[in-house]
Specification:
about 190 residues; alpha+beta
């Protein structure tokens, strides 16, 4: 049964009791990554393996998300800054234990990604500012540093379980960014 969560603001991404931050690089430019995140919502299941359903609600002000295992979210879009940031708050869910949840995707233009960057080895919980090693190469090509913050609150057992799930969430995120990047950088006929 779905239940309402505590409404939180964007500052929750910095103040939540549990903050999981993951960073990966994509060869696609920030504008393309943003478009896939915020404007092509129904495409999420094609590149994010944990997502089984994604559709906009309330004329684009919200989303309905389904995850593997039957978890459902009703969300409110909290920030939509083209090419830079996309954030949403979970308002209702059937997930046990969670009291508040906000996710924020920050996008930063960087030099083209390398093969090492595609592995997601640029960070697990580091701040994006410490992983921007490559600057723009000057050839006009840019990639995207994708920083995903998963901010949550719940009782102690939930917080402990979420912290223990960090490696799995990180793997899921890195796999999703690789799949999204492949989708965005492949020739149109292969999409």
């Amino acid at each position: 049964m779905a239940r309402r969560l505590r409404p939180v603001g964007l500052d929750f991404a910095e103040t939540a009791p549990v903050r999981l931050v993951f960073v990966a690089r994509a060869a696609a430019p920030p504008e393309a990554v943003y478009r896939a995140l915020a404007q092509e919502v129904t495409g999420w299941p094609q590149w994010f393996g944990a997502v089984t359903l994604a559709r906009p609600t309330r004329d684009g002000a919200g989303r309905e998300i389904g995850l593997v295992g039957g978890i459902r979210f009703q969300e409110t879009i909290m920030a939509s800054d083209p090419g830079r940031r996309y954030a949403y708050r979970v308002d209702e869910t059937n997930a046990p234990g969670v009291r508040a949840l906000l996710e924020e995707w920050q996008l930063t233009a960087v030099g083209p990604a390398t093969a090492d960057d595609a592995t997601g080895k640029t960070g697990g919980t580091t701040d994006a500012t410490s992983t921007t090693g490559a600057a723009d190469s000057g050839d006009g090509a840019t990639g995207t540093l994708v920083r995903w913050t998963f901010a949550a609150d719940g009782p102690a057992p939930f917080r402990l379980a979420l912290s223990a799930a960090r490696p799995g969430l990180g793997h899921s995120f890195r796999t999703a960014v690789r799949a999204l990047d492949a989708r965005l950088t492949s020739p149109p006929r292969n999409r």
